[in-house]
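user: At home tonight, take the chain set out below, taking as long as you need, and be ready to discuss the fold:
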Amino acid sequence: MADLKWKEAIEKVLEEEKKSLHYTAIAELIAKRGYRKSLGATPQDTVSANLTTDINTNKEKSIFAKVDRGYYILRKFLDDSTQLLTDDDEAKEVLTDIKSKKESHKIINAFGIYWNRNLVHWKTTPDLLGIQQIGASEVNFKDQIGIYLLHDSRETIYVGQAIDQTLGQRLKNHTSDRLGGRWDRFSWFGFYPVNANGKLILDIKLKDITVNHLGDILEAILIESLEPRQNRKQGNLFNGLEYLQQEAPEIKKKLKEQIIRELADKI
């Protein structure tokens, strides 16, 4: 089946589900059901942009309706008109979303949780490969900057910053320093956002950051990475920003070569 247009794919998912869904869930279902093979690097952002644009352009004539922050439904499935945000509420929500993207996300723009050290090929400049969701294009975060944590099987053993050196270089250093044998997982929170082509946007400027912004971000980082039992997950702040780790192709190649050698030895 040929790729549906993004709007068609979004409509098809909401038609089938007959309920409101978060835009990240819509993007994942589009991929899972094969409505688009070509997803780009940021399919969740693309879904969000398509929904927001259609509603802002077509107003009440849009086939989509927004029922909560990040949640959308086909307008025909609204059970009650009170479910629908009023024009004033809609405007406030849109402004809040824009403000959120510009303010909250201007510090942390991508992150990965508990990535596996053994899935990285630790060459001179190691690639740190991730995807926003299954089926999306790979992004290489080796040149990312930000905050990172090193974990062993029990706890977080080190927190550091990759500013003067990139994330890839800092992690590479930790494979041979005093911490080299103590960690097997790492988490990272990056300042650089990702564009639709899967490239890091390196020329962003961090300005007008308030104490409240820093407090919100630090709280969210700690909750996301440490997962305290008494805290609710603060995932709403980071929706669409988490990336899933991908195994380095060099490791896949080595495993394949090892299997071939083992089979050859048995002949």
